[in-house]
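Hey,

The postdoc asked me to send both predictions to you directly instead of through the lab channel. I've kept everything plain text so nothing gets mangled by the mail client. Protein one:
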Amino acid sequence: MTQPLFIFEMANNHMGDTAHGVAIIRAMRDACAGFPFEFAFKLQYRDLDTFIHPSFKGRNDVKYVKRFEETRLAREQFQTLLDAMRECGFKTVCTPFDEASVDLIDAQGIEIIKIASCSLTDWPLLERIARSNKPVIASTAGATPEEIDTVVSFFLHRGRPLTLMHCVAEYPTPLENLHIARVEALRRRYPEVRIGFSTHESPGHHEPVMLALAKGATVFERHVGLPSPTVTLNAYSANPQQVRSWLEAAWRALRLCGSEAWPEATADEAASLASLRRGVFLTRDVAASEVVDESAVCFAFPPVAGQITANQWSKYSRHVARQPLLAGTPLLAETVDIHHERERVLAAVTAVRQLLQEGNIVVPGKSDLEISHHYGMEQFAQFGLVMITVINREYCKKLIAMLPGQTHPEQFHRKKEETFVILHGRMTLWLDGEERQAQRGDVITVQRGVKHKFFSDTGVVFEEISSTHFADDSNYSDPAITANPRRKTLLTYWL
């Protein structure tokens, strides 16, 4: 997981007083000490001489005009704040509201540009920001998905690292209006960008940051300030103590969420689960070198140390006794050789999928797949094929796939006649010992009683059309195949 970044938004809470702004920065440094996060401080820049229209300058009846003018700082004063941020180890972030402010950001070497929600589609400003060659963080309050799509495309096409912040522009935001599920929605819609949460709820609420982190946000922003005898914070700005509590909540959430990876079970967890599983017990004597199959075992509680459990007993695992085993005893792992076939089965299915794709062959959904491994999966690369049953009624249709280098041993059918249509690749057939070559488009009919054998050097897919298939109607020339009860693996959900 990307290391979370916490951004402290100073906005106008410096109150136009540089010394007070520096005090805020130092107080927040102490508040975030000891947390394993990245931290940044953010300013807001407006070139007030051009940002406010001349007809509105000095108007005390216009809320934001009055606030901006009363908290005005000169360029040198902002530089003092930036120096304090860097001295305290903070990354520097700034929100510009006009093009001249972007020029100042560039001149002062500020690292990250933040776009306010109200400026998200201010295209003259975005064009200037894009030329700054800096990472961009953009808040999305009030924006439509289509507007966000356009902004994401704009910055990604210009090669700018982008973070989108879920944000609600109510100050403070009622908890029921936070809609933190949008963090997850943004992650799904824009997997190529980082997602964050810009929060404006009352600082006393810690659940939002925990939920946002759990939903996948990795950047967090909130307004901060420092109360004093002359300064009272607004309802959505956090003091240093509230910031530390906020960070503690985020740290708890991070630890609770843990990793998205699938780690191995801890020793305690593995021991606890193993103690509750059913063990494999022998129900009859088993000779050395004999395969221990379902006829020789039962599953019962409790297991003993070193015993094979029901969780390890699978049709893809074959257990061969190393020594004589007695009825009534637990089947211990040290007394058998275990042959795992799952990986071989998955490899075979993957190869068949590839062969079907190469031939542009459409397979009906949920068609059953049958892997014929006449001499076991360990020899499937040399002997075998895969059959996909499309239908088996009075008539039967199958798709048959053979991988490059495979041979299907000789057999015949007493009950069915079959016709093969080659769809992809080529193969060699032997019909009652007579060799034939077949390739895409060829049609071959095999009558009842005719012995047939196949080989493909390239890989082949062919269609089998026949009368009804019966499980007992495959008669092999090699009796060892007929004697092998484990020569087929059946799969339903494989596509």
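Protein two:
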Amino acid sequence: MMAPDLTITNHLLDLLGEVLCRSDGLEHAAYVLFGTSRIGQDPFDHGPRLRLLVKEVLPVLEEEITSADHQHISWSTKRFVELLARADRDGLQLGIAHSHPGGPSHFSSQDDRNEAELVRLAQNRNGDEAVMPSLLFVRGKLVAGRVWSTPAMVTDLSYARTIGGTWTTTFFTEPERCHAPALVRQELALGAGFTTQIGHLRVGVVGAGGTGSPLLQQLPRMGVKHITIFDPDRVEHSNLNRLYGATWQDAEEGVKKVEVAKREIERTGLGTKVMMFDSWIGSAECRDALKSMDLIFGCTDDHDGRLLLNRLAYYYLVPVIDVGLALRVTERYGISCLEADGRVTVVEPGSSCLVCRRIVNASVAAEEALRRTDPEEFERRKAEAYVRGEGNPSPAVISFTTSVATMAVEELIQRVNQFRGKESDVANRVRKFHLLEDFRPGAKKEPCRICGSDRVHGAGDVQPFLGRAG
């Protein structure tokens, strides 16, 4: 079994730092509620994984503390037992976080004894499936973490991911570093640390078509070492104007788009591991892979797929960079003109979702789901004009699809490297190529229950999956 890992938003990480590392020089503690993502089979390592998702931070109150100094803290466990009932009811796990004001940056023998008793309490109350995570802070920083699965068995966290504006991976053991001659000139611009961060990410690309194809050309060349591609479609002749590496023979033979993308990535010889799923992302066989990703690029045209990724970003704290392109041929003053709008939207806690930004239409998503699950009923409703028909094919030009993919990669670089400076992340950008201008459209004033409330943020595994019926 792979070592467990942790995801936390910048907001909650800062809150923990403030609560635990105060100027009084004393140890402090907090309760932490975690959602869990239990992965049956990781797509790359093929083993089970546990991902912990920080959902809520509850400081241990002054009246609960029985004694504290710069080397220890003791407090009543009455509230711990009360919170166990809430965790059990809400499908969460209860853990703790505490500080060592002056170090050391590792758990002490006293921590071992105290935490073993807490996990015993947790399992007596919530059953053997309960785990007890523990986080350690020193001088305002998260320096170690572990998960107790029994009073006698504890496993160290391998790393912690921070999302919400900037994206950082904190390694609790020295990460593997390798000499990468192909990235030398990139490191002159972005630094060796960027290579380490980007090389650790597991990146999903949903849609290997017009925008997904150029993305998949760029990511391996930037140092991404683990890529999972999701696309059920096959190459057609009309795709050849924008699919990198696709050939006339691929279209003749109806080769799967994921196979073309994998072939082209592997031809680079950069050692990138590529996994393929030729199913719609809502299929059960895609779930473990989606949950295993650290970042997903949404390059799909369907509203139902976007709606699923939209929920995934909040339930599992997996940021989604959604990409869209609209080309329209219009008449102005008797002249035929091309209008080209490229859009890149980052979906994660702290940002508005695709529904609130009016990018996803729930009615269209429902029609797409019906067409996929019950084509006969879809055709009946279409004949009665209750649902829309297929419509005409959309225009597509490779220069614009590639440019929008590059916009998405630029936002990834910003989130990891802050090359535009701090506080310069863009959650929603529309580039009007025909006007040579970028815009930042807003969202609804009243956010929905997915992005506007932290009820589902970090909830992780729930039934049904992502709270979606069907």
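Summary for protein two, as requested: The CA atoms of residues 354 and 360 lie 6 Å apart.

Thanks,
C.
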